[in-house]
Amino acid sequence: MTLDQLPPLRETLDAHGLMAKKAFGQHFLLDLNVTRKIARLAGPFEGCAVIEVGPGPGGLTRALLETDASRVIVVEKDARFLPLLEELREAAGGKLVVVEGDALEVDETALLAQHADGAPGRLVSNLPYNVGTPLLIKWLTGPWTPHGMALMFQKEVADRVAARPGSSAYGRLGIIAQAVCTARVVMDLPARAFTPPPKVASAVVRLEPRADRPSADILAALERVTAAAFGQRRKMLRSSLKALGGEALCAQAGVDPNARAEVIDLPGFLRLAAASGAD
Ligand code: SAM
């Protein structure tokens, strides 16, 4: 069987007697028009391999296999999906690698070395909601950093990742993400696009690595400064950053000590991080 001879996803799920499990954050995309659109928005893939977290029934995987990525490496924690994914692997003629495991634990550098000749890897995933944010932090802070990412989150999380200063969604997650990558919401999806539908809408964020990514020390300092500043987001910085130097720190960074965290832009936070003394 080849990819275009595969039965529709719903039939495949039925044939394997598979139902979504809440514990694994399973909300499936069964419409290939939708998954192909996500794959288009996630590319280009020339010269790259793809890592997909949580292939589940394989709707997004099928779309990724149609791209010119050199390999598609999928990491699935729910072993019930392995027989179905094995059928997909056979239909994909060697392009698909199926790994059973927890994406929080896998070593992406080793996966790419073993299965894709060390090619740069792009990440594409309809993320399990319960581990979406920890996975994003893992990919932002390294040691392995993706060549680019297109990730489906709950809309509220997607908005926080791509938030700009002054918006209510602006906070730590967006600042850390945007210090490392450019971040843009590229697609919104209503809950009814998923089987079963989640309680909330979703959105895809595209993240591309910045050439001027801060050093690990500055990133660690940025995490400390943003934790303090947004831990008390209603307070002025001279008060919320008191333990890190308060007014003197703000003066050194050229940031208004009477401002609140939500109006300070990324360069301002990077200056505060540098002034607070990277380890
Ligand atoms: N990609 C499929 C789709 O779009 O229809 C399924 C997406 S579903 C939202 C999330 C998938 O991630 C499920 O297949 C689930 O079993 C898997 N998953 C959950 N936690 C995981 C983890 N820690 N590591 C790897 N996969 C995980």
What can you tell me about this protein's structure?
With 279 residues, this protein is α/β, with parallel strands linked by helices. The protein has 2 domains: 3-209, 3-Layer(aba) Sandwich (Rossmann fold), CATH 3.40.50; 216-276, rRNA adenine dimethylase, C-terminal domain (Helicase, Ruva Protein, domain 3). The protein is built from 12 helices and 7 strands. It has helices spanning 9-15, 32-42, 59-65, 82-91, 108-116, 132-141, 155-161, 172-180, 216-231, 237-240, 246-253, 266-275; strands at 49-53, 72-76, 96-100, 121-126, 148-154, 181-189, 202-209. It has a 7-stranded mixed beta sheet with strand order 3-2-1-4-5-7-6, with helices on both faces. Strand 2 (72-76), helix 4 (82-91) and strand 3 (96-100) form a beta-alpha-beta unit. Helix 6 packs parallel to helix 8 and helix 9 crosses helix 12. The longest helix is centred in the C-terminal third of the chain and has 16 residues, at 216-231. The N and C termini lie far apart (56 Å). 41% of the residues are buried. The mean pLDDT is 96. The structure holds S-adenosylmethionine. Residues 24-29, 53-57, 59-60, 75-78, 102-104, 126, 128, 131 line the site of S-adenosylmethionine.
In short:
The protein is an alpha/beta fold and 279 residues long.
Layout of helices and strands, plus pairs?
Layout: H1 9-15, H2 32-42, E1 49-53, H3 59-65, E2 72-76, H4 82-91, E3 96-100, H5 108-116, E4 121-126, H6 132-141, E5 148-154, H7 155-161, H8 172-180, E6 181-189, E7 202-209, H9 216-231, H10 237-240, H11 246-253, H12 266-275
Parallel strand pairs: 1-2, 1-4, 2-3, 4-5
Antiparallel strand pairs: 5-7, 6-7
Residues 24-29, 53-57, 59-60, 75-78, 102-104, 126, 128, 131 line the site of S-adenosylmethionine.
